[in-house]
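SAMPLE LOG
Freezer: B-3
Tube label: C17
Construct: single chain, 229 aa
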Amino acid sequence: MTIGFDLINDLNLSSEDDFNWENKATSLYCIVAGNISSDLYVISTVLNNLSKFYQGVFYTPGTLEFKDSVDYQERILDICKIAKKIKNVAVLHHHVVIINGIAILGSTGYHGDEDDYDFEKIHNKSKFEDLIYLRHSVERLQRHIDVKHILMVTGSVPNHKLFFGEDAGIYETLPDLDMVCSVDLEKKISHWMYGSYEKIVDTNINGINYLSNPFKGEPYWAKRTNIIV
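STRUCTURE (predicted):
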């Protein structure tokens, strides 16, 4: 069985931008790997629009969604409330979705601008909580006999080496999210979709397909990825 996922990330929209996904879906499922907008109304509008064209939309917030937030729990609660009102949309916040043997596991995996002291001060704890959550979830999924593949989704770059020699900024000082692969003893992690990188990526490292598909202006299309179960 082959299951397709459309990847969208880093739309970076404001209230002045229009978004319409009509006639652009190429799969039954859509992955949104962070950074839709810092505006909750825009987030709601985008998720509503995507839900019309996919059987399932799986979304993890990026750091942009928390840019103007001083209360992490309140902002994530607001985002989850938005998603609950929309058919076919699930927020990957401490929540695993399993579809036909594929576990979709996500988190924001916070990073901030190294000059943005306020962001770092507010969300420093959250990024380590995300890392712990991902590690524990990967460990649990090792024992899940129905899970054949794990699709990781993060709003941040999982390894500073994925900057391919460019300046990785604050990523150089943070623990890599894909260190959780060390507990993937059954080698179930097959794909890692992520945001917060300005270039398109489709590369394989140590048996994992790393993918990023940032918005670079119109026309913009999702990146379809097939997973064979």
